[in-house]
Amino acid sequence: MEKIHATTVLGIIHDGKVALGADGQATMGNTIAKSNVRKVRKLYGGKILAGFAGSTADAFTLIERFEEKLNSYGGNMKRAAIELAKDWRMDRYLRKLEAMLIIANETELLVISGTGDVLEPDNQIAAIGSGSMYAQSAAIALKRHAPKLSAQEMVQEGLNIAADICIYTNHNIIIETL
């Protein structure tokens, strides 16, 4: 049985605002299993955003674990991310999870992977999932050449461009902002 996978997530910090968005497509092999998956969430009383790409059930497990770490470390996002990445790499159960996370607050944007990585991306732009390189390329160009756009507008347009190119990304976009 093939796993259900969810795809493109894009986050940007621009002009003191953060936006994190994702398309709604989940695929099973070469079939669209669902077109309106909600891959972006507000956490910790609305102070932190989290988005996922990869296996949906695995991602929900990781988001729950991240929330536990946030609560344990008083909302310190970077510390919670590092502790989750360490657990993810070391724990036999977590090690098998196939997903990636982008987390963000008003000043930091991080990518967390199952290999123990906690990355702070260049340009305050992060993208994960099958359409990530399309979305990230569009976001870099928008941030560079259309700086009057808001972070939310950049995420919207970056995801729309990815959806136009990537067959695993659709136009059912949900964006959260801080």
TrEMBL record:
Spans traversing the lipid bilayer: none
Enzyme class (EC, first level): hydrolase
Binding of Na(+), residues: 163, 166, 169
PROSITE patterns found in the cross-reference section: PROTEASOME_BETA_2
GO molecular function: metal ion binding; threonine-type endopeptidase activity
CDD domains: protease_HslV
EC number from the UniProt entry: 3.4.25.2
Coarse class of the protein's main subcellular location: cytoplasm
GO process annotations (BP): proteolysis involved in protein catabolic process
Regulation: Allosterically activated by HslU binding.
Compartments where found: Cytoplasm
Coiled coil: none
Keywords noted in UniProt: Allosteric enzyme, Cytoplasm, Hydrolase, Metal-binding, Protease, Sodium, Threonine protease
GO CC, one annotated term: proteasome core complex
Active site (record annotation): 7
Pfam families: Proteasome
Catalysed reactions listed for this entry: ATP-dependent cleavage of peptide bonds with broad specificity
Protein task: Protease subunit of a proteasome-like degradation complex believed to be a general protein degrading machinery.
PANTHER family reported in the protein's UniProt record: ATP-DEPENDENT PROTEASE SUBUNIT HSLV, METALLOPROTEASE TLDD
Subunit structure: A double ring-shaped homohexamer of HslV is capped on each side by a ring-shaped HslU homohexamer. The assembly of the HslU/HslV complex is dependent on binding of ATP.
Family: Belongs to the peptidase T1B family. HslV subfamily.
Protein name: ATP-dependent protease subunit HslV
Gene source species: Emticicia agri
Chain's gene name: hslV
